[in-house]
Amino acid sequence: MPKISAYAAKIPDATGHIFYDSEEDAVWRDLMAQQLPEVAKHMAPDYLAGLAKLDMPKDRVPQAVEISAVLRASTGWQVAPVPALIGFGRFFGMLADKTFPAASFIRSRKDFNYIKEPDIFHEIFGHTPLLTDPRFAGFTHAIGQAGLRARPEDYAWLIRLYWFTVEFGLTRVDGQIKALGSGLASSPTELQWSVGSPVPERQPFDVMNILRTPYRIDIHQPLYFVLENVDDLFAAAERDLLADVARAREMGLFAPKYPPIQAAS
Questions:
Q1: Taking Cα atoms as reference points, which of 114, 23, 124 lies closest to residue 77?
Q2: Is residue 264 part of a domain?
C-alpha cells in the first residue's frame, strides 16, 4: 500500500462522530446521485441487498457509528475511522478483528471522478454493503486471519486475492456480467468499464491465478476475474491460503497485463 496521502485524516470526537462541512456533504450527495443509478444497473444483487439494508443518507456523509450499528446487528462487524493509508499488518489485523478500516476524509471536487487512494465514499458506499452479508463478511474475515499468520514478505501476494475479489471482483448473474467489488461500486468510470467494455480481459475465478497476477492501483484494471457462482468465493475462504501463497511464490508472477509506469522526465 502507498505510504503518502494527499489528504489529512479527520478525527472523530468522543462520541465517535466526525464533523463534515457543507461542501464535504455536497460531494457525498453528488457522488450518491451519480452512482446510485449505475450500481442499480451494474452491481450484483448481493451488493444491492446490502446497500438497501444500510439505507445510507443521500445528502450527507454517514457516520461510522451509524453504519456500525447495522453491521453489528447483521454480521458482528463494525467500521473504524483510520488515516487514508495504513500498513498491511494493521489492515489484516483489523479485518481479523471484524473491524473494517475506513478512511475518514472525503475526496475533493478535483478528484471527484477518480481518486487514487480510498476515501470514505469508497469505504462506506463501496465496502460496507457486502459486510452486511455473513458469507462475504466471513470471506473478508478469513483474509484477515490469513494475514495475521503471514510473513510480511507474503502480504503483497495475499492482498491480490482481496484485490481481485473484494475490490474488483465480477460475477455472472443469469448469464450477465455483474460487478461485485467495492472498487467498482464506488467508481464513476470503472464500473461501466468493468462490465461493458470489450477492452479488459475477463478470466474465470481461480485462486492460484489471482495470487500470481500483478496489478496497478492507478488505472482501470486490464483484467478481471469472474465468479460463475459466488459460493466459489466462500469455498476459497476454507482453503489454506498461506499454503496457496507459498505455492504461488514458487511458480512466480505472471507477466503484467498493464503497461509499464512511465518514469517522470
A1: 124
A2: no
